[in-house]
Design brief:
87 residues, alpha+beta, four-stranded antiparallel beta sheet, 3 helices
Length: 87
């Protein structure tokens, strides 16, 4: 299943590394990534293949990463975005 993951928080060293490592721990493949910094605020959106993992399982794991990094991480099924653009 494909998912869209959004990451936001105050910019600091190691955000991309922490998120990528957290996803790699679950064998989640990053298909596409976009990031920007707005003032001191970091934002990143990733398109990922969750393989056999559920959105809930990935979200729970990434909540730990988010907590340790002071971030907000949100994992959503890509099907939600596909449906929104068909309306």
């Amino acid at each position: 299943m494909k998912a869209i993951i959004s990451v936001t928080g105050v910019d600091h060293v190691g955000i991309v590394a922490a998120v990528a490592t957290g996803l790699a721990d679950l064998d989640v493949n990053i298909l596409n990534i976009s990031q920007t910094i707005m003032s001191d605020y970091f934002t990143m959106i990733l398109q990922c293949d969750l393989n056999d993992k559920s959105v809930t399982d990935v979200q729970q794991h990434m909540d730990h990463v988010a907590g340790s990094q002071g971030l907000k991480v949100r994992v959503q099924s890509a099907a939600i975005f596909d449906a929104m653009h068909k309306i």
